[in-house]
């Protein structure tokens, strides 16, 4: 399945390593955001709206909603405003409110105006709306993003922003305080949609969660495993083996102390320091993410096969030669050398200014803080069932969290944050109704989502051979029978939640 540049962006695999930056010859180049850096910490987003999308719909209206900075402290009267959009184009009197739940990115009308959810809204006569998540875009509850000011970036705070805004929309915008409410979200936004239904069943009538990571985990080793499976499925076993050989050969060179060879092969700015364990981890992490990024260039999963063709070319004697040659050529225009310094690795996470480009456009400091304090999702290579070696461990990500936000983020603090997230929301057994979880078979987030779940009015479906976000696009002639079935399933469930007699049970 090839996604056009006008379609939704793939995030979970579009992850460029932060080390592909310019050498120290130019301060401007050092400070420049490397291509794809926005994907570095968007592990939970699944997909994002296309960058630069601007609504052409005159019925899409902007608004600002006043919310409390801290919903749980009656002694704190501070408020802030967050952005929202709404559209009454398809609304029929007495119809429901359909909300696209915003994630870790600036507000964008794309999913509200171009999606299967929009099409179902048109059928149901629904009013459409979408919100901007606190701390992102122009919705800032604090004057800067210092660690102290990030304390209000908590999922429970976000859910109360959402539910109070929905109540406002029903009363003041729609003029129908009893309007039914259906939520939809992708990736982290999908998790929020399902949790809002769980927390506020008297207000939220149903939620469709696509690629929703609802099980927090510090050791997200399944991610690399699933990427390896995608390489086998869309590339070849030979390609998988080439990558496996490359990473193992690199590990052997490190163990033998022959890092000069690696420094030359990958054109590092400084010699790889075999005594610096974090630098070694960063080297392997960069190799892995750079390959993953190249494999979905132009948001085309079929590009995996093209990358694999290059890696398996007969001109290369070894997997390490193939991978190094490919990465040097792939990123030749993006940097003069690979900067492996840990300082460079965390550079974009330490800027506390709201108007810093990394924070405004990509939300790096904010979203990474959320990972460090509530979700984890650290992409390690500790599983033996993947091709990217064994050197990327939890230690790298813990060091990253501490460098960005302080030494108080100990291993115990991070583990406790993840434990509480799963405890509060039920992880992969939330005991919930009126939620449909959909995932693609070729979606690494599937492993932290819900893929089997059936009760009276809730279900889960994995679409065979589907990539991330394929189920949220409008029905087209390019859909497989299985993908079409998933979209029809979502439509029927939503109709059921709104009171239709359509049966939710599927074969």
Automatic annotation (TrEMBL):
Recorded GO molecular functions are: dipeptidyl-peptidase activity; serine-type exopeptidase activity
Instruction: List GO BP terms, alphabetically.
Output: proteolysis
InterPro entries documented for this protein: AB_hydrolase_fold (IPR029058), Peptidase_S28 (IPR008758), Ser_carbopepase_S28_SKS (IPR042269)
Pfam short name (any one) = Peptidase_S28
Q: Which UniProt keywords apply?
A: Glycoprotein, Hydrolase, Protease, Signal
Signal peptide, first to last residue: 1-24
| Protein family per UniProt | Belongs to the peptidase S28 family.
Q: Which PANTHER family match?
A: PROTEASE S28 PRO-X CARBOXYPEPTIDASE-RELATED (PTHR11010), RE36938P-RELATED (PTHR11010:SF5)
UniProt protein name: Prolylcarboxypeptidase
Q: Which organism is it from?
A: Anopheles epiroticus
Q: What is the lineage of its organism?
A: Eukaryota, Metazoa, Ecdysozoa, Arthropoda, Hexapoda
């Amino acid at each position: 399945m090839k996604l056009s540049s006008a379609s939704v962006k793939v995030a979970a695999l579009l992850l460029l390593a932060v080390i592909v930056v310019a050498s120290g010859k130019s301060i401007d180049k050092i400070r420049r955001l490397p291509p794809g850096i926005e994907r570095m910490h968007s592990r939970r987003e699944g997909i994002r709206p296309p960058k630069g999308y601007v609504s052409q719909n005159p019925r899409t209206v902007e608004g600002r909603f006043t919310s409390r900075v801290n919903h749980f402290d009656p002694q704190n009267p501070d408020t802030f405003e967050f952005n929202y959009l709404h559209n009454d184009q398809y609304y029929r009197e007495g119809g429901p409110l359909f909300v696209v739940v915003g994630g870790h990115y600036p507000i964008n009308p794309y999913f509200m105006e171009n999606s299967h959810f929009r099409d179902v809204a048109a059928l149901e006569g629904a009013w459409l709306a979408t919100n901007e998540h606190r701390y992102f875009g122009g919705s800032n509850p604090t004057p800067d993003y210092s660690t102290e000011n990030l304390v209000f970036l908590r999922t429970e705070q976000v859910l109360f922003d959402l539910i109070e805004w929905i109540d406002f929309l029903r009363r003041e915008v729609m003029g129908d305080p009893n309007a039914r409410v259906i939520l939809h979200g992708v990736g982290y936004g999908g998790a929020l949609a399902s949790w809002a239904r769980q927390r506020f069943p008297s207000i939220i009538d149903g939620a469709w969660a696509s690629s929703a990571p609802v099980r927090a985990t510090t050791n997200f080793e399944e991610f690399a495993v699933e990427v390896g499976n995608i390489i086998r499925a869309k590339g070849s076993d030979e390609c998988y083996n080439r990558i496996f050989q490359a990473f193992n050969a690199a590990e052997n060179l490190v163990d033998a102390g022959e890092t000069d060879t690696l420094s030359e092969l990958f054109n590092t700015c400084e010699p790889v320091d075999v005594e610096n364990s974090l630098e070694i981890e960063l080297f392997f992490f960069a190799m892995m993410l750079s390959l993953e990024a190249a494999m979905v260039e132009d948001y085309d999963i079929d590009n995996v096969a093209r990358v694999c063709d290059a890696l398996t070319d007969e001109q290369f004697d070894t997997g390490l030669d193939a991978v190094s040659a490919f990465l040097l050529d792939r990123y030749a225009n993006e940097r003069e050398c690979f900067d492996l310094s840990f300082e460079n690795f965390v550079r974009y996470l330490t800027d506390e200014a709201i108007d810093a480009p990394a924070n405004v456009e990509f939300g790096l400091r904010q979203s990474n803080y959320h990972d460090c304090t509530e979700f984890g999702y650290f992409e390690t290579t500790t599983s033996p069932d993947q091709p990217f070696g064994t050197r990327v461990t939890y230690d790298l990500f813990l060091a990253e969290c501490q460098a960005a936000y302080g030494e108080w983020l100990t291993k115990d603090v991070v583990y406790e944050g993840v434990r509480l997230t799963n405890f509060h929301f039920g992880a992969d057994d939330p005991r919930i109704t009126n939620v449909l979880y959909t995932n693609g078979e070729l979606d690494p987030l599937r492993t932290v989502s819900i893929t089997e779940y059936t009760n009276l009015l809730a279900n889960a479906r994995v679409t065979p051979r589907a990539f991330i976000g394929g189920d949220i696009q409008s029905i087209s002639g390019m859909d497989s029978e299985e993908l079409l079935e998933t979209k029809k399933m979502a439509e029927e469930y939503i109709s059921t939640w709104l009171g239709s007699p359509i049966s939710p049970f599927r074969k």
